[in-house]
Amino acid sequence: MPGTRTIQLALVQMCCDSTPADNLARALDHLAEAARGGAKLVVLPELFLGPYFCQRPDDRSAFDRAETVPGPTTSVLAEAARRHEIVLVGGSVYEKGADGKFYNTAAVFNPDGSLVGVYRKTHIPEDILYHEQHYFAPGDTGIRVFDTAVGKVAPLICYDQWYPEAARIATLMGAEVIVYPTAIGVIDDDVEDNITGDWEQMWRNAQIGHAAVNNVFVAGVNRVGREGAITFWGGSFIASPAASLLAKAGHGEEIVRADCHLSRVKALQDAWRFLPNRRPEMYGRLVQALSR
Fold first, then answer.
1. What pLDDT sits at residue 1?
2. Measuring CA to CA, how many Å separate 217 from each of 4, 13, 34, 134, 220?
3. So what's the pLDDT on residue 291?
4. Residue 15 a catalytic site member
5. Annotated catalytic residue within 132, 158, 227, 260
């Protein structure tokens, strides 16, 4: 079809329960496999270098795992992107910033190995077994959309997925694909009563909703396996700009793939006209502090 831009998007769903070196090696093997299968955009999970350390609010040793960006891990990821000629969203790493603060940071690389840019997680949760406010400062990059070799890609990170504002801003900035590197699972019943229902369904439905109301591709990539009192359910998926589920993983390690026809983004946005029909002058309440 004339004017069609099609890429294969691949998500690396993996266990992250070993040493950083082993996890990095596993991630590299998976992304190499994804590239051999034709993927041009590959995404790794959140904090894929190790176990999800935020289950405890007082793990001081966690700060020793932080590194600079650019730094050792991003150098390896840059070389992998160059070697396999892919656009790579390197999940996220625990970053020690030049300002002395610690961030949850996603780095994006082009097929020549160049660092396109970084995004620091905007929304930081604080909940039972998700004590991220003890480890991460709120991101200061703002929402970012990177003009990569395959298209305009916006990386958001895990908890950002619950905020429609972030997805809408990314869309207004021209994103064609929004990707969410994630670490999310269900907590054991003896730790927390599950009063919220099916977490996995809620998680997926929220993000598919972002695809529907913004007419963009949305992909969430999760880790798998049991770590402490959390069972990470996997379930990584890719949704179309019309909110159809193009691909979905199970609960084990696998690579999730889908062909994404990027030309559909503008076509559907022009058809539905959700963006030009907005009423920004009516939305002031969205940026006011919560009052109780």
1. 43
2. 15, 18, 19, 32, 10
3. 79
4. no
5. 158
* Residue carrying the six token digits 């940026």: 287
What does the pLDDT look like over 196-253, one tens digit per residue?
Answer: 678 899 999 999 999 999 999 999 999 999 999 999 999 999 999 999 999 999 999 9
Q: Is 16 a catalytic residue?
A: no
Q: Are strands 230-233 and 185-187 parallel, antiparallel or unpaired?
A: antiparallel
Bridge partners of 119, per DSSP, are 106
Q: Give the residue ranges of DSSP H helices in the chain.
A: 20-36, 72-84, 164-172, 199-214, 263-272
**Residue 184 contacts residue 222 (beta carbons within 8 Å):** yes
The one catalytic residue in 16, 54, 96, 121 is 121
Q: What pLDDT was estimated at residue 191? A: 76
Written as six digits, the tokens of 114 are 């160049």
Q: How far is CA 25 from the centre of its chain?
A: 20
* Catalytic pick among 15, 46, 96, 260: 46
- Rounded Cα distance, 142 and 29, in Å: 32
Cα radius of gyration (the chain): 18
Q: Per-residue pLDDT averaged across 126-132, rounded?
A: 95
Q: Determine the Cα–Cα distance for residues 132 and 104; give it in Å rounded to an integer.
A: 9
Burial code (b: 16+ CB inside 10 Å, e: under 16) for 152-168 equals bbbbbbbbbbebeebbb
- Cα–Cα–Cα angle for 223, 226, 228, rounded to 5 degrees: 115
Told to judge if 158 belongs to the known catalytic residues of this protein, a careful annotator would answer yes
Domain 6-287 in CATH 2.130.10.10: no
Token pair 């895990």 is found at 158
Spatial separation of the C-alpha atoms in residues 66 and 208, rounded to whole Å:
32
What value does the mean pLDDT take over residues 36-63?
A: 96
Position 17: which residue type? D
Residue with tokens 């990821």: 77
Q: CA–CA distance from 6 to each of 145, 153, 243 (Å)?
A: 19, 14, 17
User: Which pTM does this prediction carry?
Assistant: 0.96
